[in-house]
Amino acid sequence: MTGTEHRNAQDILAAVREVEAEAAGGAEALFMAAMLASAPLPYDFALGMEGTLHNPSLANPAAAFFAATAVMEPLITRGLAESDADAQSFTLPDDVRRAVLDTLADDDRATWAGRAAYALNLVLPDVDAGQWPVYEWLLPHVLACRDLVETAGLRSEAAGRVLHQTGFALHYQGRHREAAALLDAALAVDVDLKGAEHPDVCADLEGLGTVLWAAGEPERAERAFASCLALQQRIFTEDNHVTAPVLNSLGVIRQTLGRLADAEAAFKDCLRVLALAHGEGHPAIASCLANYALLCEAADRPDEALRLAERALEINRALYGDDHPETAADLNTVALLLERTGDPETAEARFRESLAIREKIFGPDHPETAQSLCNLALLLDRAGRPHQAAPLYERGLGIYDAALGPTHPLMEAALDNYLHLLETTGGRPENDHLRAMAEARLQRIVQRAD
Predict the structure, then answer these.
(1) Residue 42, strand partner residues
(2) Strand partners, 83
(3) In what order do the strands lie in the sheet with 89-91?
């Protein structure tokens, strides 16, 4: 019997008992799938029995396909599962899911929840950009796993990995808030399994802080990084180099929050720890110096900021050479600070050098190239050379528009500077699209003022 429209729960459970008696593997796949979402699962999931050393498909996909088909066949012929051979997936009908779940005692539910997480973990690949379609397919089941963690007390290494890996897969897709929710749940799993004073909990907190920062939640990110640092200082040796990335992140976030003294203390601690561990020429030192330079610039200490930025440039140029993104970024920062300290001629040379590097390594249509174009244009406009600045702005704005869209913060800031140039020169964009963007931006500014 394959139709399900006239079956009652007793008929379904009778079919389940037949499978339990005749095909234990099929019964396991059924009970595991019932604990997850009402969505398709890959055939390989049916092979993820607890105690399996690895996913058989990793060793021999063809053999795994036939093995999974054999496991699923007793379920499919009895109408307990629906198969999509082309997608190599199966789904439990809703009435089957309800009947199975209704018959399970709480202890049995907990057991099958753990086994479902184990099987889901086996079919979930390591995070990689090319694997996103798999994560997208399995996301309903990952969310069901998170619900089991949060409401049913599921705690296992497999569940933790499922949540961690999917959290970072979402993060890399720009879905930071969804990612943070999964990483929060993964943190709870690790704390319960390993204790609050464990190195893995440090890693969890650091990852969570990174994702929260990307999600635009600096207060929560600061708390996560601060908790991570406090734990690192308790469980690792004094001035351990593992604290440096967290200190650097805390400096950046605390500056954003307006806590400049706390931010400066974090940057100084970061530099001290890194110098003890690596000497004076490490790339992590250059990163911290560059961030510290931005803090000094924000604190109206431009001469000190320039000295720090030039040291960062010196380190990265020695490490990577001229044609490297870090060198280009440092040149850009140095140029901004040279202009601020009253040396526009040298600033222009540094901006042009940064632009040349970015055009070479990123290409002419990349947002990094657009940033250099717009920064150089701003300098030229301020130097009284608006007619040289205008075409640079227009090219940079075109790149931003194509790559980021008309309302991206970088686009809006550059467009504001371009509008100021047009006001002072009385000019108008010849390009119709650019003229429309400029007019739309002016309209938004006027609406906010009203």
Answers:
(1) 89
(2) 90
(3) 41-42, 89-91, 82-84
As to burial, measured by CB atoms within 10 angstroms (0-12 exposed, 13-18 middle, 19+ buried), residue 390 is buried
Full-model pTM: 0.85
Q: Mean pLDDT across the stretch 301-315?
A: 97
| Average pLDDT score over residue span 131-146 | 96
Q: How confident is the model at residue 54, as a pLDDT?
A: 41
Question: Does residue 336 carry a pLDDT above 60?
Answer: yes
User: Distance between CA atoms of 366 and 411, rounded to whole angstroms?
Assistant: 13
CB 56 within 8 A of CB 47: yes
β-pair partners for 91:
82
**What is the crossing angle of helices 325-340 and 344-362, to 10°?**
160
Measured CA to CA, the distance from residue 233 to residue 229 in angstroms comes to 6
Chain centre distance of CA 76: 39
- Angstrom distance (rounded) from CA 209 to CA 51: 34
Q: Evaluate the CA torsion angle 13, 19, 22, 26 in order and state its sign.
A: negative
Going by C-alpha positions, the residue among 248, 258, 243, 173 that lies closest to residue 211 is 173
**Nearest-angstrom CA–CA distance, 138 and 145:** 11
Nearest to 100 by CA among 88, 112, 90, 89: 112
DSSP assignment letter at 267: H
237, 276 Cβ separation under 8 angstroms? no
pLDDT recorded at residue 49: 54
Give me the mean pLDDT over the 10-26 stretch.
Answer: 90
Phi/psi at 98 (nearest 5 deg)? -65, -45
Closest CA to 191 of 241, 221, 227, 219: 227
Q: What residue type is assigned to position 9 of the chain?
A: A
Residue 276 phi/psi, 5-degree rounding, is: -65, -40
From the candidate CATH numbers 1.10.3470, 3.40.1350, 1.20.1070, 1.10.10, the one assigned to the domain spanning 1-123: 1.10.10
**Angle formed at CA 379 by CA 373 and CA 381, multiple of 5 degrees:** 100
Average pLDDT in the chain: 90
Domain coordinates in residue numbering, the chain? 1-123, 370-450
Give the pLDDT score at 242: 96
> Residue 447 above 90 pLDDT?
no
